[in-house]
């Protein structure tokens, strides 16, 4: 076996580092420890790829089928320094570049928050791929920050834009509480899929969407069976959320939930509306649980009064 001397290793590392002009001044120090070799090369490569000209080159490569995958990975790896260029790319003439730029922003996540206004406009893009990618990006960037843009698009003249906005809100859960009034109005949208998705978004918000219950009960009689079922499931989801958080629910809110779950159940059992059994159960189950909670509270109150009187 050939013996490798430490002197040989040090000499080899010196030669390798001296091949990189930017590192000549530190080659002697670094040569003393081969462990520093890989990290410094990595930092150098990253610094080179993060400069504006490299970023712009990656942006252009997003439209090239043979280069876009690696370019995409590079932009995501660069992260925050690439955000402004990706925002500009959302207006690129090539829809593939626009879609890839939106997806890259989604992967970057919270650091891409400055892109929200541009992504809001991308929700209105003529290309379906771009609109879909913009929705995905909204789902990956700071949740509360995106809500005003989605709410504004619920009133857009283009039905596809309204649908994408409602779909984006379905992914935000109770973060979308401020969207409840507009989502409630959207239950009357002229497009079936917009109404259906608005109902789903309200259901996902849960107890904080109690004010939408009257409108959801009304939507259970929508002319479209899919919208009727979506409204029923949303009503049930809100009821279930009230049930799960019942210790924090006021008597007034408990009464409100029970009232509209009862009304919803009356609608759900109408034969002509053709509700599936699962949809009926989604309303009935939380209703029964909340009625039991109301009875328990009444008993507790009576016992408390009795104790006070006996004292």
For the record, the CATH class of the domain at 178-311 is Mainly Alpha
Q: List the uncertain runs.
A: 1-48
Structural class given helices, strands, pairing? mainly alpha
* Total E-strand runs: 0
What is the oligomer described by this structure?
single chain
Integer-rounded radius of gyration: 29 Å
Largest sheet: none
Going by CATH, the homologous superfamily of the domain at 178-311 would be Leucine-rich Repeat Variant
The CATH topology of the domain at 178-311 comes to Leucine-rich Repeat Variant
Q: What is the percent of helical residues?
A: 55-70%
Q: What is the H/E string?
A: HHHHHHHHHHHHHHHHH
Could you tell me the strand content as a percent range?
Answer: under 5%
Shape: elongated
Would you mind describing this structure in some detail?
The chain has 311 residues and is an all-alpha fold. Among the domains are: 1-38, no CATH class; 178-311, Alpha Horseshoe (Leucine-rich Repeat Variant), CATH 1.25.10.10. Helix content is 69%, strand content 0%. α5 packs parallel to α7 (95-108), α9 runs parallel beside α11 and α14 packs antiparallel against α15. The chain is elongated.
